[in-house]
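Subject: Sanity check before I submit

Could someone independently write out the C-alpha cells for this chain? I want to compare against mine line by line before I put it in a report. The sequence has 1233 residues.
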Amino acid sequence: MLALNKKNNNECLIHFAGTKDSLCAFSKKRFETFLCRREEWLQFEEAALVIARNSLQVCRQDESSENCEQYFFHQKCYNSFTDISKIKRARQQQKVVNYDAEKEKSREEVEEPQSPKPKRRSRVSGQQGSNQNVLPDVCIICKRKTSYIRDKEQASESIYRTSKLKIKLQRDYPQLVFFSLSRQNKSELVYCEYIETGEVLEKMKFESVNCESASDLEPDDEEMTGEMPQEVSQRNDEIVKLYEIAILLRSCIQETATFPRVWPPTSVDISNDAAKDITPIVLFNFIAWVMNKSDEPTLDSFVRLQKIWDNDDFGEEAKVSTHITNGIAIQEEREDDVIPNVNVPKSQAKSLPAPHSEILPYVIGKKKSPNLKSICCSSDLEEKVYVAVQQFAEKCDFAYSLIKMHYGGCLPDWTGFNTLLAEDKIPRVSKIGYLPVIDASPTEYSTVHTVLSKSKDIASQLGMDYMVLVFDEAIYSKAQHIRWKNPEFMEKFIIRMGDFHAIMSFCGAIGKLFRDAGLQDILIESGVVGTGSVNGVMSGKFYNGSTRCHKIMHEALERIRFQVFMDSLSPEERKDVEDQISILKDSFPGHDFENLLARPAFHDIMTQYGVFIEAQKQTCPTFSLWSSYIDISGLMMKFIRATRESDWFLHLSTLRSMLPWFFAADRVNYSRYASVYWLEMNALEETHPSAAENLKRHWTVQRQQRYGFSSIACDQAIEQTANRDSKTKGGLIGFTLNKGAVNRWILSQSERSASHGQCQIMAGAVDNERQRKNLDETHKQNYEKEVKSVISTIESMVNPFEKEQTNLIHLASGVIAPCAVQHDLLCAKSLGEKRFMQFVGENLLSDTPDLFDTIKKTKLQTFSSSQKPTKTATSKGKEVSLKSSRNLCARLLLLAKSRDVDMKIVLSYSLGPYPLSLATVDGNPTKTVKANLMHMLEEMSPECVNNFLPRNSAIMVDAMALLQSLTRIPKTFGELAAHVLSRLLSLAGFHKASRIDFVADRYPDHSIKANERSRRAAQGSTLINIYGKSQPTPTQWKKYLNSGKNKEAIISFLIDCWKDLKSDDLTGLILYTTRGDKCFKISPTSQSTIVETIEVVELECDHEEADTRLLLHAKHASDNDFSVVAIKSPDTDVFLLMVAMKQNFSADLHFITGNQNQSRIISVNEVCDKVGSETCNLIVGFHAFTGCDSVSSFYGKGKRKAWKVLSENPKGKDAFRILGDEVDPTEDLYELL
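---
Independent answer below. Compare away.
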C-alpha cells in the first residue's frame, strides 16, 4: 500500500508502501529530475499519480532546486518513481484507453454496425460479432484487472507482475483455461473449461496489435489517433486467412497415420511410397505451391514437381589395412515373403554387450588333397566340350562390334548395349544382411575355421541342408584345406571362388602377356589411361579401369581387323555384309535382334570372317598375336556377361577357357585352385544334388530392378556393402575400440545403409528412376571418342593386321621380336592348355592326387625379356644376375697361399669376358663425365663468359637438343611446329640475330653410335607415323624421341610446315634447316606472301652427327659476312670441336649452353687465347682417348685425373695431337701412347 506523505520533511517525499531504507537528501540534479518526472506522472491514471499529487502538498509545483536539501527520499522509491520505462508504458496504456473511448463513441453515432477496426492492445482480444458468447468484445480479465489488483491483491498495478496475476487467477478460478499461442509476442487466451479449444480457435479472429515494446517508445512519439491505418486492416485480413489455412493443415496432419507404425523403422518405412501414405495431399501440394515448384490448383492428387538434377561423383581411394573378417548374408526376395511387424520396445541402454567371438586355435597339420577322380570324368576336360555354350555370347559381341563400327556414337558401349537387350530380364532383388565381424585376420587358419563353424551353426538354426560360401582366392584356399579334412564340412558347405577377384587376376594375366608388346603404350598415347594409373590397369588391381581399357582395346582392334577383312572382299560381298549389318541395326534392341543372330546369313558372315582370320594367322605373326588378344579380351567379356546375366553354364564354360591363360601367365594360385573349383562345380550333381539346381539359378546378387544385365558377383557385393561401409566416412575404421559399440554398428549397419539410400532418393540426391549411366548421350560420345582415339593411335604406329608383315613386331617401337619371344607369345594358349591338362591329370584326377605339388612356371618370353640382365644358375639352383666381383684378385691371392697355384699363370688370362678397366660386366663401355673437360677449360680462362652476343650474329641450334628440352608438349603436331618456330624466333630476337640454323642428326640403320643410342633408349621407344597437323602429339614424349625414325619424321614434318609460312611470320629472319643430307633455306620475300624455300647445295653433307654438321653451318655463316657465329648445344663434344677448329674461322665463335640459371655464353676465342694453340690442337685426341660417346673411358679415371697426368708429362701432347689429326693411327702412335 502507498503511504501518503504529509508535511513531514523528515520523511520520504515519494514513498512507496513497504519500502524501508535510509533517507537521502536531494541534490540539485536529482531534485530537478524528480520535478520533471512528477509532471509526467500527473498526466496518467496510475498508482504513481497518487504519489505525485501527495508530493504537491509538501513540495509545491514551482519549488526551486535551491531548497532541495530540506527534502529526503528513499533510494528505491526514487528509482521506481523516475523509471522512464514505466512512464513510457503508462503513456502507451493511455493511448489504448483513448482509442477504446473513441471507438465506443463512433459506434453510438452510427446506426448500422460496421466491422470493427483493429485495436492497439497489449493483449489478445476476442472475436467480434460472429460468436460473442465464446469471447466477449473486451477481455474480462483486462477489464477487471485494475480493480482485481487494487481491491483484492491490494497492490500497485504498475509494479504488479503478470506471471503473478496468472498464478493468482489459477488459484482463485480453477475453471479458467490458459491457452498459449505458438507465435511469439502474443498473450495467452483465457476461457472457461466447458468451451472446447477447437471452437475457440475456429471462431476467433486476431487483432493486429503491432505495437512496439514499451522500452522502445520515445517520449516524443506521436499520439495515437482515433482511426487505425488502412494497412493495419489489410494485415488483419491476411493473418486471418493464414490462420485458417494453418487450422486446415493441422487437422489434416492430425488425421494422418503416425510414423513409424512399428519400432524400430526399417528401410521399407523410409521410401517415397511410404511417404505418400503418411503425407496428406493438402500438405504436400501446399508446400509445393509455397516453394514455387508447382502452380497446379488441385487437392485431389499430388501435384507434379519440377526436378533439377546434378551429377556428384565420388572417386575416393585410400590404403587402409583392416585386420578383421567381414561377412554378409545374401538371399533373393520372393513374392510370398512376408516381413513381420515386430515392435521392439525402446530401451534407454546406449550400448550392446560384445558378442562372444573367441578364436579357438586351429592347426591344419598335413594338408589333404581332394579326391575328385570318383566324381569327375577325365574325358570331359577338353575345352571343345564346353565352348558350344559360348556361341550365342560370341554372336552378340560380334554383332555389337559390327553395328558400332558402322553407326558409332548413336549406340552405347558394350554394357549399355546388353542392358537394352535385357530390359525384360531383371531378376528379383537380393536381400543383404551383415554378419558379426570376427576380430581376426581372415588369412589365418584359426579365423577361417571359426568362420566355417559359425556358418554351420547358422545353417543349423535356419534348418538349411547346405550353405554356399563365397571367398576370394586367398581365403578360398584355406577354407578348402579345412573342408577337405572335415567330412561334416564337406557335406554341409559348397565353397565357391569369387568371380570379381578372378576377373582381376585374369586382367593381370592379359597385362603380363601383352603389356610389353605395345598395349601399354597404345593406351597411354590414346589418352585412355594415364601414366600414373597404367600399372594398376595392367596388373588388374583397378577392376573398373582394367575391364574398361580391355573393352575399348578389344573394340578398336576388332574394327581394324574387320576393316581389313572387308577390304579383301569383292564389291558384291561387301555390299551383302553391309546390308546385313544395317538389318541388325534396325532390329536392335527388339526381340527380332536375337532371331537375326541365329539366321544363316549372319552365321555365314562369321564363318567367312573366321576363315579369313585363320588364314592370316598362318602368314603374319603380328596378326596372330593381336588376334589372340581379341580372343582373350573377348573371353573376359563373356565371363562378365555370365555374371551379369546370372548364366551358370556360361560361367563354367568361360572359366574352362580361361584356365590355360592362367597357366600360361604363371598365375600359380589361380591355376591351382581355379582348376579345383571348376571341377567341383561341374560335379555338383554328384556331391550336392539338392543344391545344384538352386545354385544354377541363384549364384549372383541383384541390387536393383531398374534395368537388366546388372547382376554382380558375391565377392563384389561385399566390397560394395560391408567393406565400403566400414572404410568410408561414418564407417568402422577409426570409429571406436569398444567392442559393444562395434557390435551395435554391425547389427544396424545394413538397415541404416538401406535407410540412408532411401533418404537420398527422397531428398533428390540420388535419382531412383535414373537410367544406367552407360546409356547417357555424353557417355556414348566419350566412349566412342576413346575407341576412335585408340584406332588413330594404332594406325599412327604399326597396324598389327597389315598383310605385308612377316615378323612379330612391337606395335609401339617397331622392334622385331626374337624367335624365342615370337614362339612363346604365339603358342601361349597351347602351352597353357598343355600344362592345365597335365596338372589335372597328374595332380587332381590320379589315384594319388597331390594338389600341393609344385607347379612349374611357364616363363614365357616377352618383348621385355631381352632387356633383362643375363642370369646364371648358382650351385643351389637359384638364378642371380651375372656379376663380376672386383675382389676376385684378393680371393685368388688367398687361395694361392693355401693351395699350389701359380698366380702368374692365372693372371695371364682374362678374369672376365671383357677387361674390367675398359668395360662393364655386361660388355658395355664405361662412362665418364665429359663436361669436366669443358669446365677445366673455362677455369683456365675466367674471362670467357659473356652475357650477350653482338648484333647481326648467326646462331646454329642443335635441333634434337631443342626438341628434347621441351617440357610442355603442345596437343597437336601442328601446334608443335608453331611452338618450335616460336622458340627459334625468340632466341634470335633476344640475341639480335638475323640468321638461325636448325641442324639435326641423321639416323642410318648402321651407325657407330647405335650402341649408345640403344643404351639411351633402354626403357623402350614408341614408333608413331605423322599424318597431319591435327594429329595429337604422343603422351610419352621422351619415349617417342628414343626412335631414330620418329626423329627423322618430326624434322621432315617441321620443315614441311615452315615451308607454308607467310613472310611476315619470320619477321625478317633467315632460317636454315636440315633434313637427311639436304639443307634448305627459308627466307621472307617482298613479292609474295609465302616464304621462299630453296635448297642450299654447299651445305649438303652426309654427316651422321649434328656435332660436326653444326661447325659446317658455322663455317658457312662465317664465310658469308657474319662476324659473330654462335652454336647453341648442351653437348660438350661440340664445344671441344669448336676449340679445336677455331683457327679455321674468321668470325668470332661463341658457345651457348646450360639450362635456366646455368645458361651462359662462352667466348671460344677467349678460351683459345688463354689455353694456347698447342692445347687446342690436342684437345680432340685427348677427349677421344679418355672417353667419349663411342670410346670407353678408363675405369675410375676421369677427365681431370687424365689432364693432370698429361700436364706432368709433356711428351704425351704430341701423341694426342697426332691422334686427333690422323684417321688411321700408325704403329708409332700406338707405341707413343
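---
OP: Matches mine. For the report I'm noting this point. The longest strand covers residues 430-438.
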